[in-house]
Every structure is written in C-alpha cells, then in structure tokens.
Amino acid sequence: MYYKMSNIKVEKILGSRRLSNYWWATIIFCGGLSFFLVGLSAYLHKQLIPSIKYTTLVFLPQGAIMTFYGTVGILISIFLWYTIILNIGSGYNEFNNDKGIITIFRLGFPGNNRILKLKYNTNEIYSIKVVIEEGLSVKREIYLKMKDKREIPLTKVGQPLSLSKLEDQAVNIAKFLDLKVEGIS
Predict the structure, then answer these.
(1) Residues in Cβ contact with 145 at an 8 Å cutoff, skipping those fewer than 6 apart
(2) TM spans, by residue (predicted)?
(3) pTM score > 0.85 for this model?
C-alpha cells in the first residue's frame, strides 16, 4: 500500500499480523493443548477429553511423549502470538524527495533494537535492484543498491509478490527517485 504526498512516497509494510500467522498460531495451540491433555489424562488416569479413552494409553512412554509434544506446541504457539501482538516486522519505507532522504522503519522484538530506523541520502543510492530466483524456495525481492555496493532490502517478508507487481513496484520507486532499475530484462 502506497501513500503519495507531493514529493513524499510512503509504502506500508505488513508485519506479523497476517491471516496465515493467526491461523497457524491457533492451530498449533489447539494441537499442542490436545496432546498435552491426552498425556495428562494418561498420567492422572482420568478422562480429560471426552472423546479419548485414557485406558488405551500408558503414561510411559506414550503419555510422556504426548505431554512433551503438547508442551512444545503450546510454547511455539505462545511465541507466534507474541510476534503477532507485537507486530514484528511491520513498518514503512518512506521516500522523501524534498529532503533527499529514504527512511526504512521496522518494529522488532522488545529491547535495545525494538525500533529499526535507517536513513539514507538519495545521492548515496546507485540503483533499484530486483532479484528473482525461481525454484523450490522462490525469492522475489527489491533492494536499494548503494554506491558502496551495499544492498538494503525494501520488500516485506512473506508470500512473494507476483512478477508483474514486483516489477511495477520497482519501476515506480525508481521513477520516483530518478534511478535506474537492475535485474529486469
């Protein structure tokens, strides 16, 4: 999503608050809780889940393993919910032609590096670079290529953009900043 104000262009970056993360955090929590309760049922010799018969499950080794897997599942889901609540990875890319500054802002985990705010002068930028790698692990990214050969990623993490959207986005940024585009043939 872009917002354009005269000579300022802002691109919002979606962080952890995406539908797939809500889905997986919920599914992993439900599965982990189920495994944990089944293991606990075997240990207590009480039926904690009505549809599971504890008499067929011995605590050692099956019940202990179920309790372990359940605990791990619950901990992973807590971590996922934590990243969703904190909206890790969200932020914006701001291209300001008035001041000649590009700002890349992202939220991270709490601590000294919770807020990542990088600023670059537009005269330090050589080009906009597009990287497209097809295969098992698809990679479609846009980078700011600096004159000192550094490459700063601009695209969000998650589902790769379609080729047409990626190319349009790169061309729009390049036109706005009056730069050339590399990697598009």
Answers:
(1) 125, 126, 127, 128, 129, 151, 182
(2) 21-44, 64-85
(3) no
